[in-house]
Amino acid sequence: MRRRSSFFQEIRLVHLLFFLSSISIPSFGQESQRIAFENVRVFDQSTLSLSPAQNVLIENNTILQISKEWTQEMKTASAKIEGKGKTLIPGLIDVHVHLVFGSLSMVEMMSPGLNQEIILDKSGKGAEEMLLRGFTSVRDVGGPIFPLKNAIDQGKILGPRVWPSGAVISQTAGHGDFRTPQERSRKFFGQPSRAELFGATFIADGKPEVLTAVRENLRFGASQIKLMAGGGTSSAYDPIDVTQYTLEEMQAAVEAAEDWGTYVTVHAYTDRAVQKAIHAGVKCVEHGQMVSEETLKLMAEKGIWLSLQNLMEDSPKMDPARREKRKPVLEGQKRVWAKAKELGVKLAWGTDFLFEPELNKEQNAYILKLQEWFSPAEILKMITYDNAQLLALSGNRSPYPGELGVIKEGALADLILVDGNPLEDISLLAQPEEKFLVIMKDGKVVKNKLD
């Protein structure tokens, strides 16, 4: 018990230093700021269509008015953006990112010189580029995210809203066991691994350790918990087919998360892993490309979210062993997308780029891969409104109170003015530099090509 206590004290110290440095004093008494979009066609997720010409008034970070008329309140706007009949859509949402792991190569991750300053610099640049691609909100499903999130929220770094999971929680020899061959078990030898000290992972075995790991992440602001429930393609020790964590361990994580009003999502590909997680009470499954129709029916029946990706077929820089492990996942993903839609499973979309920073610029292009199963309007709804519903599953643990993924009065003002009609040409979403004329996050214009 003393060894376990010492381990978590070391982890707390690393996180606490960042937590204390993140505290800022809020400002009060600022005058309200109003920005008006004139003559725009607004995407309506309920009808999967664009409205006739509308005017949209933003006050501070909220949509105050939507009107066909140019109202008296709109006349008081401090800035006017002339839409000229172009399309206004909600900010894009990616519900499966790793802002840190996606900004560093494996060589950089393993470098002896890696430190928090380097991590924040590289992931900060990645976060800014992501926002300028139109992704105003993301769910970070594992990694040392809290310092970056704090810096974004304080305005020190430009980036999207972040729903953080914190360190992934993994059993020994699980998908989140990032130890090198030289690193021995902390439980037996008393030394936390490098990845654990960086806040990338918790290796937690047994109900007491799982409870502590979940509560540690919640203590530092996790909006949901990420648990590794099965084998993975980017990990060294676990075959893709293995099931991880006992039912009791997963139930402990679910109970601890639900006591804080939030949920557990699991990394899992196979029927056995996914079904065990569902029986344990999880609300969301990441991946699932190898599940059967029987499991998808269970998910639809119980209202379990499937956070699915459409992974690339290959990458020249990918390790050959990882490429081999991915084969059954790639074989299953086309079948699962189609069958999940047919059965009415709650579907969300994400990218899941890992350790290949050059891939990040393809984030928008990956949206287009959905055309095999969805219409342009369905795609736009999924990557805005539907993904926002999954974010809302965090309840009171959501770091940003308010409604996202929709353009209506009272919703948060995360918006993109698109040059063209994405319901007619969905490829516009893959051209953010040219076609995203205005990007607004939290009522603030972060890009304006019309100036």
How are the secondary structure elements laid out?
Blueprint: H1 2-21, E1 34-44, E2 49-59, E3 62-67, H2 72-75, E4 79-90, E5 92-97, H3 106-110, H4 116-132, E6 135-140, H5 146-153, E7 161-164, E8 168-170, H6 186-189, H7 194-197, E9 201-203, H8 206-219, E10 225-228, H9 247-259, E11 264-268, H10 271-280, E12 284-287, H11 293-302, E13 305-308, H12 320-325, H13 327-343, E14 346-349, H14 376-391, E15 415-418, H15 432-435, E16 436-441, E17 444-448
Parallel strand pairs: 1-4, 5-6, 6-7, 8-9, 10-11, 11-12, 12-13, 13-14
Antiparallel strand pairs: 1-2, 2-3, 4-15, 15-16, 16-17
Helix pairs in contact: 8-9, 9-10, 11-13
Shape, per Cα inertia axes: globular
Q: Could you describe the largest sheet, including whether it forms a barrel?
A: 7 strands, mixed
**Based on DSSP secondary structure assignment, what is the total number of beta strands?**
17
What is the C-level CATH assignment of the largest domain?
A: Alpha Beta
Compute the number of helices.
Answer: 15
The number of distinct structural domains comes to 2
Descriptive account of the structure:
The protein has 451 residues and is of the alpha/beta class. The chain has two domains: 2-19 and 93-397, TIM Barrel (Alpha-Beta Barrel); 34-91 and 404-448, Urease, subunit C, domain 1. 34% of the residues lie in helices and 22% in strands. The chain has 15 helices and 17 strands. The strands form four sheets. It has a seven-stranded mixed sheet. It is globular, with a radius of gyration of 22 Å.
